[in-house]
UniProtKB/TrEMBL annotation:
Organism the protein comes from: Acinetobacter pittii
Official protein name in the record: HNH endonuclease
UniProt-listed InterPro entries: HNH_nuc (IPR003615)
Length: 278
């Protein structure tokens, strides 16, 4: 008997929507820490207020999650500054955890970019919806689209903040841990390169000007093309959306998680001989 794929069943999706359950929210055999009402709040611009940061889980890819949902995090109450929203366990959040700073943290994965803020004046809160900017330390922590706090110019960093797109972020790091192409032996696509990967890689590198997005090394000389790679940010070789692809030189690529094996390759050694001036 062939079991139905409940992750793609239109009747189930329609039922969930009628119940106010986010389409990409799925249960597990374990009891969830949040009910579906609160999961719906996470999906809204209002967000879900948390007691403290201990409710937030840091995933292996350094993104943030709660009850099986990747989220953005920000502080709702503010006086004379606009808080930034976070998507990773950056140095700011690490310091908050270490110093046990208490605040009205809010978790949301709404993609509108609008956040509910309480401006406090004369000890009286005034609620308003505000577009907040992304945390620069988060961009640097995940090296989002090659962002580098130390290498990039201030102009380039400011441009990256202004152009950050929440929808693009959730395309690379899906909200739900149970995507529609659920990872089981029946429905999961193989995590392998597509047949036209050579053409995809060449096109992406060419559009980048043959420049590494992290260290800005120029590898446009034909004999240096082999030193420039295309990295899958979420580790899925079958996800070739442009937002998931990052052009990196072999040295920067080897510094990515689970890519240390590149350092033992002949190509890496050749790169070091040519470009390592230290």
């Amino acid at each position: 008997m062939k079991l139905p794929n409940f992750y793609q069943d239109q009747h189930l999706i329609t039922l969930k929507m009628s119940m106010g359950i986010p389409q990409d929210a799925y249960g597990t055999l374990e009891a969830s820490k949040l009910d579906y009402f609160n999961l719906t709040k996470v999906a809204s611009s209002e967000g879900l207020e948390l007691k403290d940061l201990s409710q937030i889980e840091q995933l292996d890819d350094n993104t943030l999650a709660i009850a099986g949902q990747r989220i953005l995090l920000y502080i709702r109450d503010t006086t004379n500054f606009e808080p930034k929203f976070h998507f990773s366990n950056c140095q700011t959040l690490q310091k908050m955890r270490e110093t046990n700073r208490i605040g009205r943290y809010v978790a949301t994965n709404c993609e509108t970019g609008n956040f509910l803020i309480n401006y406090i004046k004369d000890n009286k809160p005034q609620a308003c919806t505000k577009r907040l900017k992304v945390c620069r330390y988060c961009l640097d922590f995940l090296a989002w689209q090659g962002y580098s706090h130390t290498i990039w110019s201030e102009v380039k960093k400011s441009r990256a903040v202004e152009h950050f797109n929440i929808s693009d972020f959730f395309k690379v790091y899906p909200k739900s841990f149970h995507p529609h192409n659920h990872q089981d032996s029946i429905h999961a696509p193989l995590n392998i390169y597509p047949k036209d990967w050579r053409n995809i890689s060449s096109s992406v590198r060419e559009k980048s000007g043959w420049i590494c997005k992290k260290c800005d090394i120029n590898l446009s000389a034909v004999e240096h093309h082999c030193f420039l790679h295309v990295h899958h940010k979420n580790g899925q070789k079958n996800n070739n959306n442009r937002e998931n692809l990052e052009v990196l030189c072999i040295r920067c690529h080897s510094d990515e998680p689970n890519h240390q094996h590149l350092k033992s390759s002949k190509t890496y050694q050749d790169f070091i001989k040519i470009f390592d001036t230290t």
